[in-house]
Write a structure and sequence with these properties.
CATH class of one domain: Mainly Alpha
Number of strands: 0
CATH architecture of one domain: Alpha Horseshoe
Largest sheet: none
Strand content: under 5%
Helix content: over 70%
Radius of gyration: 37 Å
Structural class: mainly alpha
Length: 564
């Protein structure tokens, strides 16, 4: 087993040292046993060796301490029993996966300081160390951290560890306990360094390895956690703690397919592990399996209904799974009431609101702006801004946003939006370049063909546009496509009557063609036929009641006393 442990340990050492940038600790100082005064030299030497090994507190050193004590002729039988009991008791507390099932050893007299220390440690509640406590009593008291995490226990354990350090006994277990204290106080960096130091000096101190992986995950360095766990698989890969941490590290690294089997193994052993339940729910939501995710989220909601990830998943399930806008927004708004600057929640809510009323779209626009205030290159927020500016026909703003979006996301390829913004902002050369690329990439796309013809018209290539329109009308196409072709034909007709004929054909194909309805209004207004103009404007307003261009035309009619 020791050889097996050393092989992965070498790789783990390298990973941990690289992760923490710490140096190898100095050789251990055996110190001096406080219980040796007045003993024979032989007895004192054995006691010093046994207590130094007990103080190290690793599985290997605890076993060695028992071996040395039980083979010694210099120790009294009661002392051998005491050391054997201490090794078993500490092992059961510190290493439950490995030593938790060791047979109980006879306890020392109830009044013995070590017995009192372990009795308190088992409950997870300890008081201030007594004056004159020896190092092993202090280590026993500090082991209460394995059972309790109250502020009182943490304060007392911290004091016990400080006093223990004065003995100069080398102890990977004490270093691990200091890591626990740092982790619980929220100092993940300091905790990681303590855990690494403990494990590097004792590769069998596996709780320190788990602590290092845990803090790397907390520090948003899950890939490093995967590396050190993978290097230790041969020695600890069957332990529940290892499996659980590997599940979390792979999940946080985005390696969901690999994380899946580990997540399921954890849930088979502990179906109510709340954090893993949430991980499993998230993986199901990512896979689009909202129905299976729901009962897991119900269970987690009983644990912490204010958890950020829980609220995010609830909102996603409500929206993506059932398109329940009100329920989804309720979860996202609750999340934002707790975490007002959460970019993911702001964008999720904004994407829903952007599909709603004018007031909701305005709120979505403001939410996206808040995200950009913290991250000016957030492509999701820029997309929301761009869509709203296009809807408002604010072409100067849309052009600036599009330029920002293309700089932030070089892979952005919404050619329809790009073409519309560039040509509407008067950037005809760029619009033509986009239309040409689009038509080349998607020669069968009706939208690409329409965009290309529009650009020909913008470039005054009337003959080229007429030719393409005539050929396209001969081919079969959708009603929407043919309606757009007839509209474009109206733009290259020699006079208004011919243009009106083309527009009427456009509306036959698609009665809701907003461009054709608006063009009919404009022609009839130029011809001073306000009643016919009013007729077409009313139809256009029915299609797009919030269109700013139509609003201006409506005001024009109102001034003539002809409200649409």
């Amino acid at each position: 087993m020791k050889a097996l442990l050393r092989r992965p340990a070498a790789a783990v050492w390298a990973s941990l040292l690289l992760a923490a940038c710490v140096s190898t600790p100095p050789p251990p100082d055996a110190g001096t046993a406080l219980t040796m005064q007045g003993r024979s030299d032989e007895s004192a030497a054995v006691k010093a060796e046994v207590e130094a090994r007990l103080a190290r507190g690793t599985p290997e050193s605890l076993e060695q301490a028992r071996t040395v004590a039980e083979s010694s002729k210099a120790l009294a039988p009661s002392e051998i029993v005491l050391y054997r009991w201490y090794a078993v008791e500490l092992g059961r507390l510190a290493y439950p996966d490995k030593l938790g099932t060791a047979p109980l050893a006879p306890e020392p007299p109830p009044g013995h300081p070590w017995a009192r220390a372990f009795a308190d440690a088992r409950t997870g509640r300890i008081g201030t160390p007594r004056e004159g406590a020896d190092p092993l009593e202090l280590l026993a008291l500090a082991s209460a951290l394995f059972r309790g995490d109250s502020k009182e226990t943490s304060r007392a354990a911290s004091l016990a560890l400080d006093l223990f350090a004065q003995s100069r006994l080398e102890s990977p277990l004490a270093e691990h306990l200091r890591g626990l204290l740092a982790e619980r106080s929220g100092n993940a960096d300091a905790a990681r360094d303590r855990y690494v130091s403990a494990f590097v000096s004792a590769p069998d101190c596996y709780p320190a390895l788990f602590g290092a992986a845990r803090t790397l995950i907390a520090l948003d360095r899950p890939k490093e956690a995967v590396d050190i766990l993978a290097a230790s698989k041969a020695a600890y890969g069957e332990m529940f703690g290892w499996v659980r941490l590997m599940a979390l590290a792979l999940y946080d690294s985005g390696r969901y397919d690999e994380a899946g089997p580990f997540v399921l193994r954890v849930l088979r052993e502990d179906p109510m592990d709340s954090r893993i339940l949430l991980v499993r729910a998230d993986m199901l939501v990512r896979a689009g399996d909202y129905r299976q995710a729901t009962p897991l989220l119900d269970a987690y909601g009983e644990v912490d209904a204010a958890d950020r990830r829980y609220l995010m998943l609830r909102g996603r399930v409500a929206w993506e799974g059932s398109r329940n806008k009100d329920e989804a927004l309720r979860y996202f708004r609750k999340l934002l009431s707790i975490y007002p600057d959460d970019a993911e929640a702001l964008l999720s809510a904004a994407r829903i609101l952007a599909q709603g009323t004018a007031a909701e779209r305005g709120e979505a626009y403001l939410m996206a702006g808040r995200v950009l205030g913290k991250n000016p290159a957030d492509s999701g927020a820029l997309r929301i801004l761009l869509a709203e500016e296009i809807r408002r026909k604010d072409w100067s703003a849309a052009l600036a946003t599009l330029d920002r979006l293309r700089a932030a996301d070089p892979e952005y390829r919404d050619r329809a939006a790009m073409h519309l913004v560039y040509r509407s902002a008067g950037r005809f050369d760029e619009a033509f370049r986009v239309a040409t690329e689009w038509r080349t990439a998607s020669p069968d796309s009706e939208d690409a063909r329409i965009a290309y013809i529009r650009s020909l018209i913008d470039r005054k290539d009337t003959a080229g546009a007429r030719d393409l329109i005539a050929r396209a009308l001969i081919d079969k196409g959708s009603a929407r496509f043919r309606s757009s072709l007839y509209f474009l034909q109206s733009l290259v007709q020699p006079n208004e009557e011919a243009a009106l004929n083309s527009l009427r054909s456009s509306l036959v194909e698609n009665v809701q063609n907003l461009e054709a309805l608006t063009a009919m209004y404009d022609i009839y207004m130029r011809q001073k036929d306000a009643q016919k103009a009013r007729f077409y404007l009313r139809q256009a307003l029915a299609v797009a009641p919030d269109d700013p261009g139509l609003a201006r035309r409506r005001e024009e009619l109102i001034r003539l006393g002809l409200a649409p």
